[in-house]
Design a protein that fits this description.
- This protein is mainly alpha-helical.
- Helix content is 75%, strand content 0%.
- α1 crosses α2 and α2 packs antiparallel against α4.
- The longest helix has 25 residues.
Length: 76
């Protein structure tokens, strides 16, 4: 597959990418993955602790999954 076909597929089936990204982010927040929850190199990293970032990523993952399922159900 070339880049144009991949982009065309993702534009037509964006909800699949949203659900996959949501699942990965949700799993990363639950399993406390360093690459997701660590603040090294992140701007404003002193504002939130690791636990707060995990909660934020958990909510973001759930939101992406809900939006993806919603988009699929409505046929958007």
């Amino acid at each position: 597959m070339d880049g144009e076909k991949i982009m065309a597929f993702l534009q037509e089936h964006w909800y699949i990418a949203a659900v996959i990204a949501g699942i990965v982010i949700l799993m990363g927040a639950i399993r406390n993955w360093n690459w997701l929850c660590d603040s090294v190199g992140a701007p404003e990293s002193h504002r939130y602790g690791r636990g707060s970032r995990r909660v934020i990523f958990f909510v973001l993952g759930v939101l992406l999954i809900v939006v993806g399922v919603w988009g699929f159900a409505l046929g958007l």
